[in-house]
């Protein structure tokens, strides 16, 4: 990872921007500075961004349920200090850690609406905005025909259940069978750390409330142009979704790639990954292939709308943000 010391970082900035001296000093004056402080105390206006791209006959809309900051020491394989340095060098450092977005993708072809992932729904960080985002598109949850959940971590399936009820009553639900088996296994649950218990609890609830759950065995087409890709590693049944039509394609890779640490390295993990060898193998396979194919990628936790490509740059893999508007 690129190294950049905090002192070098501060030294590179114009003098007036260091330590908040623009606000506190003479430039704005004391009363204005006080007003700015009072404004900061008000709850922020919630914005529901969405971005749309065309993939052949499909419209893909990126939505977001919100965000959470992951402490720098949540990335086994690197020290917290190393991850923080990487964030500083990418100008994304926050005191609270690495910001994870929670992006979902709505796929429409005029006949069917498929939602990929359902968000954390308030179970972590500043989340729970997906229903408002759908509402902004004029959609209630009962207008969704199918939900594909890429794996059974709480930040991907939380929104399936609202107030103890099935929140997508008209939807077929697709989840890989290996994840359904893993996350409903009492023995696995008993042996799991505290931070995974919410996912185990939610998985049991989802299975109970979704009689239309279809456990997926291997790669298959859900409808013409929408197919499941096996990306086992992050969890046993971690899957991606390929959208393909009219010579264009996009692959939603879920937790294949995390901000700040990927795709530059594959030996750095996220705390929730229970089988690190499998997670590393997944990324070792995928990053070079994605780079050589120039695949358009959608990734849950990358900065909104999570669209980009893995590119090989002088022997190092990096994330290249893709156009997400006015791209035709
Ligand atoms: Zn995730």
Automatic annotation (TrEMBL):
Domain of life: Bacteria
Keyword match Ribosomal protein: no
Chain ranges of the Metallo-beta-lactamase domain: 101-301
Protein's UniProt name: Glyoxylase-like metal-dependent hydrolase (Beta-lactamase superfamily II)
Nucleotidyltransferase as UniProt keyword: no
Alphabetical list of PANTHER family matching this protein: QUORUM-QUENCHING LACTONASE YTNP-RELATED (PTHR42978:SF6), QUORUM-QUENCHING LACTONASE YTNP-RELATED-RELATED (PTHR42978)
Signal peptide residue numbers: none
UniProt record similarity statement: Belongs to the metallo-beta-lactamase superfamily.
Cited Gene3D superfamilies: Ribonuclease Z/Hydroxyacylglutathione hydrolase-like
